Amino acid sequence: MTDITDAYFSNLIGRLETLKRVLAEPMAQVASVILDAARGDKRVYVFGTGHSHMLAEEVHYRAGGLAFTVPVLVGSAMLHEGAVISSVYERTQGLVRPMLERYGMQPGDVIIIASNSGVNAAPIEAADYAHEIGAKVIAITSIAYSAAIANGRRRLAEVADIVLDNGLPPGDAVLDLAGTGLRVGPVSTAVGVTVINAIFAEVASELSRSGDAPVYLSANMPGAAEINQKLVEKYRPRNPHL
Prior knowledge:
- The protein has 242 residues and is α/β, with parallel strands linked by helices.
- The strands form two sheets. It has a five-stranded parallel sheet, with helices on both faces. The chain has a two-stranded antiparallel ribbon with strand order 6-7.
- α1 (3-22) packs across α9, α2 packs across α9 and α3 (53-59) runs parallel beside α9.
- It has ten helices and seven strands.
- The termini are far apart.
- It has a single domain (22-236), classed as Glucose-6-phosphate isomerase like protein, domain 1 (Rossmann fold).
């Protein structure tokens, strides 16, 4: 293992160890909110633009994942239809509402909004829309990053009901390339996926106590086809991506 590879692993592991302690209380709060939603047959939406959208894909139809999650996936806000234009999209006012309206969000639902920078128009408008509907808003964001670049703009951390501060530095990348002024090794995706999966594991554990944990199995596991099909039939009416 090279020095920079070792440094990346060590940096990420150190951050996760810190977040396990620092986020213990807000993660418990989020788990409680999601539990209430699940017990009321509500949905948990996950939204992000650019690379943050990967958190939405992570929870969708996932082995070991909860079936009441709904990813918000719109090509123009992701990367595969044009990375440059997706950056324009996430900064443009007024585009998120029609995107979210097709998902049928309801009062009592929950939306997890991932935005590392926390200042772009799309995540802020998603939070505003959710609040209008009567849904709870959870933010996964870097407070340090958004504070450094806000310049008077609203910040996701200011409008969410519960904030999960990933503790990352402005710019995301955590390793310096000596003599270049460049930084490499982004960690927001790895951190975000870890946090969200830990919360959902807690929720599933609590739901399992009453025998009501709607968890997908890996397609190659015995009995997976039958179990997963039942979950899809139940949750497809409110999840356009199943």
